[in-house]
Structures are given as C-alpha cells and as structure tokens.
C-alpha cells in the first residue's frame, strides 16, 4: 500500500511539472538581427535601444547581429543565437518575414518576430505599424506650413504606407499643394537621396519628408543648410534643429519591443500579424517646432484625438 501511494505521488508530481512547462513560455534570452548597422540614429538604433530595454527590465541577456541579409547569413546567426540560449528572436526589417519562414523549421524552440512583412505559421509574429496615419498627420503640418506650395518626399520604397498617408494629409485641406515623391529603392543610399534633395530644392520644394533610415539625417541636414523645413521620420528629430524640423512622425519602437517580450514571457504573444497605431501609444507625433503656429498644432492634435476614437482619418 505504501509503495502504491509513493508511486501515485511521483506520478502526480510528474504530471504537474509537465503541465506547468507546457503552459509557460518563459523568456530565456533575446536575439535581434539587423539588415544594416545599428548606428543609423533612426530605425535600427531604435531597435537596438529596444533590445537594451528588454535586457534591463526583464533581467535577460540580449544578443544582436548586424548586416544579416541572406538566408545563409540568417541561419548562421540563428545558430549562434541558439547556442546562447535565445528563444525569442526579432528581425528588425521586412526582409525577415520571408527569411525566418525559410529557416524556422531548423529552430523549433525559437519564436520569430519580424516587422512590416506578412507572416504565417507556428512561432511567427509579424509586427505592423498603421503608418498611413502618422504620414497623414505629418502631411497636414507640411501643407499648412509650405510657402511655395510644393513639398517633397524622399522615400525608400513605394510600399511604405506612410508615403501615401503623407500625400493624403497634404491634400486634405490644401489640394493645390504639389507633392513631389522620389524613391531611392534603398534604405541606406545617402548620395542618391542627397542628389534628389538638391534637385528638389532647386525646383522650389520647401518642406521635405525623408522617409528612409540611412539617409534621413543627411537629408535633414541638407535641408537645414538651405534654410528650409523637414518632417522627421521614426524618431523625434527635433534635436536636429528646432527651427528646421516642424514635427516628426514617431514609431515608439523601444516600448513595442518591451511589450512583445513581456507578452512572450507570459505566454500571451499571438502568432500571425499584429497591428499598432496611435491608440496603442506606439505611433505619435514628435515635438512641434516653435515656428509652427499654436493653431496648427492644436488642429492636428484634435484630428489625432478624433482618429483615436473613431479609427477614421479625417479625409
């Protein structure tokens, strides 16, 4: 009888242990892959800061690899991360939605998070910003502040939703304002972006929206040298010139990283595609320049409040 009772207790302990393990997805260590350098001071830098925040608030180790762009590079990087006990991996760009899909079968104990690309399947989460909205409100400011009635967008790729949003925002109240958009077809090509910027300055554009990571700051500096205006991108870029940067379209990436890691640690991170917007506190407008009249700032803030309540842009 004692032997039977002893075996029963062991069985119950074993079952309880299995149940706890199956129901819990504790974060062990976190990894982060970048398609370029972390020193761009815009998108990639914010991802790196997100990694640092996870380390500091969740008491885990963080590992990162730069310039990971191919399937072979991705697989080698993931093997290294696995050896360091990583079970949550972020890919800081849309290229990782496909790259992770191709290699995830070799890493069944990892959960993969990528940005701005559609994902499907187990252990895959796609993060998406409803960036049309932030572009729209940036465009509103540009349309109210232009003197030449010509504004310019220096974009990386045509698929960026903030570009269409910016154009709609410009034309919301001032359809007569011309929007000249050029595509660099690269996140990093500073020389090409600067060449287009100079041409657009010569053609009369007086407000610029440089929507690309590696060339964003050089374009704003060029605009500043010419005494013109810019709308900042991804970060609050008022520190580049309060008289130059009218406001910024901000993605609060650092807080989003922490949110995703916390959800994973609680076993609550959903697979599939997740979308974030102003109402989530992930998108916002940056500091307004003192050259922007208070009435324009108030109008934009009122429209944002309405958008948060209704989910509908004013156009």
Automatic annotation (TrEMBL):
The keyword Cell membrane applies. GO terms for cellular component: plasma membrane. Keywords: Cell membrane, Lipoprotein, Membrane, Signal. It holds the Pfam family Bmp. It is found in: Cell membrane. Residues 1-22 form the signal peptide. It is a lipid-anchor. InterPro entries: BMP_lipoprotein (IPR050957), Peripla_BP_I (IPR028082), PnrA-like (IPR003760). Residues 28-314 form the ABC transporter substrate-binding protein PnrA-like domain. Belongs to the BMP lipoprotein family. This is BMP family ABC transporter substrate-binding protein. It comes from Exobacillus caeni. The lineage of its organism: Bacteria, Bacillati, Bacillota, Bacilli, Bacillales.
């Amino acid at each position: 009888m004692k032997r039977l009772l002893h075996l029963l207790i062991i069985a119950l302990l074993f079952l309880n242990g299995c149940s706890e393990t199956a129901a819990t997805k504790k974060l062990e260590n976190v990894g982060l892959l970048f398609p370029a350098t972390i020193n761009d001071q815009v998108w990639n830098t914010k991802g790196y800061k997100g990694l640092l925040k996870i380390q500091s608030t969740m008491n885990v180790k963080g590992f990162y690899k730069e310039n990971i762009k191919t399937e072979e590079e991705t697989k080698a990087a993931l093997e290294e991360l696995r050896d360091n006990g990583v079970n949550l991996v972020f890919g800081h760009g849309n290229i990782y939605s496909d790259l992770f899909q191709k290699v995830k079968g070799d890493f069944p104990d990892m959960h993969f998070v990528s940005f701005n690309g559609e994902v499907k399947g187990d252990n895959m989460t796609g993060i998406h910003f409803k960036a049309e909205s932030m572009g729209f409100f940036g465009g509103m400011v540009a349309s109210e502040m232009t003197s030449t009635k010509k504004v310019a967008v220096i974009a990386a790729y045509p698929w960026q939703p903030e570009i269409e949003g910016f154009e709609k925002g410009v034309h919301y109240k001032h359809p007569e304002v011309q929007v000249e958009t050029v595509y660099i077809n690269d996140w990093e090509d500073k020389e090409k972006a600067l060449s287009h910027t100079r041409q657009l300055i010569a053609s009369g554009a007086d407000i610029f929206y440089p929507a690309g990571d590696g060339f964003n700051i050089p374009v704003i500096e060029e605009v500043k040298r010419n005494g013109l205006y810019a709308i900042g991108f991804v970060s609050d870029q008022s520190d580049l010139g309060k008289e130059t940067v009218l406001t910024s379209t901000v993605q609060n990436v650092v807080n989003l990283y922490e949110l995703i890691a916390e959800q994973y640690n609680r076993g609550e991170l959903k697979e599939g595609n997740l979308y974030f917007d102003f109402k989530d506190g992930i998108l916002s407008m940056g500091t307004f320049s003192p050259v922007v009249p208070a009435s324009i700032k108030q109008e934009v803030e009122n429209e944002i409040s309405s958008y948060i309540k209704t989910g509908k842009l004013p156009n």
